[in-house]
Design a protein that fits this description.
By secondary structure, the protein is of the alpha/beta class. Helices cover 35% and strands 15% of the residues. It has a single domain (19-372), classed as Alkaline Phosphatase, subunit A, CATH 3.40.720.
Amino acid sequence: MRAYPAAASPAAHGRGGVSLVVYLVESFMDPDELGFKYTWDPIPNLRALRLEQMGGWAIVPRAFGGSANTEFEMLTGMTNAFLPEGSIPYRQHVRSPLPALARTLQGHGYATVAVQADPRYYYDRERVYPLLGFDRTVWLHEAKVPQADRGGWPSDEVLVDSVIAATTRSHPAFVFGFPSSTHSPYNVGTYASSALDVTDAPNAAVRAEVKEYINAERVADRAIGRLVEHFRSVPDSTIVVVFGDHLPPLSEAARERLSNRVSKLPEVEQTRETRRVPLLVWANFKLPHSEPTLSVNLLPPFLLEKMGLARTGLFAVTDSLRRVFPVVSAVVESADGRLWPRDDVPPALRGPIEDYRVMQYDLLLGRGFARRVGSGG
């Protein structure tokens, strides 16, 4: 295995380091990709913010479900692609402390907080979060807080308030927030009287389903806008990252136009397109505008670089990897745009990916040798 020294970083911005907020939105996609016309744009805030700074795409491990698998990739820097089909790592594989993003930032003096709209028992999160390095978790589902318009989840406004409170309490801080107001099903009719509507649906059932989804997205978008506007006005340097955990599990009829468009692509591109969600990386200090495409597991070293922190251990390996292969998931995409199914990468190019696979196996399933020699754990 190659030697991967700690990557050099620029000086940290602002007083006490750069805080990080990761806001992972349930079932969140660009609604334009469904192929319908709407009375107005359901996500104007996110769209404007993506143009303002870094607005690209995140490649998630599954198409229409598996929130905890996207979480796992984002928080650990590991990938489900190296695990057996159908794995849920939180339940099956996370059994001891990992050198995850929260634990790495903890080592730099960060307060680490998760704010969760789901019940604490979902995906075994109550057990897993401390193993990833979170100091504490705010479990909003069991608190007496205002609920979302639909689904019985804590409202996005309450979740944003809790994220802001966590960053106000300590600086620097790493706060992971997970709202669920956009969760399926989409046949409740909560927004039946809303003026935000679908203008070219093929029938009433599809119109009602997509209308409910885009109105739920509008609520999520307002919360995203308020979250960013708060940090725009605070003196402490902060990066806010927003992306979806997967595409919404709409009915086949509601997804028909998307499916028809994607079906015309080569199979490997179909796989990528059905795992592609909007990505925002925004900071209250200057970041150059760019449109990165990264698989979720390769976001941690990218963000550590923007925060001015060295990448060590697994994150040093994935930092080098992402510069050659920014997507390593069900598909692999090279920096120059070549795309392969993960198992079809030419042998001559597989070295960095194999280093990553071996180190992940050691840390997650093996004896943890890498952790003992300075992997950040």
